[in-house]
Specification:
Strand content: under 5%
Helix content: over 70%
Structural class: mainly alpha
Radius of gyration: 26 Å
Distance between the termini: 67 Å
Largest sheet: none
Number of strands: 0
Amino acid sequence: MSFVPAEVLPGSALAVQKTPARRATAELGPRARLWPALVAVYRAQLSRARVARIPLLFVATFQSVGIMILMRGVVDGGGEARAVVAGASVLVVAFVALNLLAQYFGQLRASGGLDHYATLPVPPAAVVLGAAGAYASFTVPGTVVTAVFGCLLYGLPLTHLWVLALVIPLAGAALAGLGAAFGLLAPRPELATLLGQLGMSAALLLGVLPAERMPGVVRFARDLLPSTYGVEAFARTFGSDPDWAFVFGDLAVCAGVGVVSLAVATWAYRRAAVR
């Protein structure tokens, strides 16, 4: 009778222990690409915010329509009427993309919700862009209703309202990036809410009021506000012969500011997620 050491048996526990591990750690799946991850985050945020879409649309639209009605008593027509209608229309975008997005990211950071997104294999830019796009999507009906109502109220032409298809996403991107940065960089959610409301108030005062009636210092502050260029682009289209070079130039400025503000918001997300 011959004896075989237990170490050489293929099914023995010792053989398993002495077999070197081929992989010390489990390999993770590949990181999701930007566009599929962006679409997934956008759909998730859109379904989440769908419950509150009716109050958002009502408040944002009612606020802008009320401002135009109040300004009707002091503005008759001409360039001032164009500024009021364009500013009130873009104000709907500012209310949601700047104010509410700052509150959302501020609360998300304070409640630890960023930890959930940090565990997902999605790029940080997809989280910021997806949330910004979902919130900005709710501004489309309110902005169109405000613009149509303002044109009818002040007797402005409806011919070039198609420009809103460019003004809403470009101005929304610039303001959404700014609002997301406010919410992610603010140390407390109350401060994020305050910054968002201050930004919306600036968009209200500097965007709706005619620039000709502002002092020089205020005009300089108005030029620093991203939504100003969306207002200017939209207001130029109410003329009988719009200068499209200036219109698309203002939209290009909105696009450039949007890229910068969203890049800052993405950096702020990475900074907040690792803390």
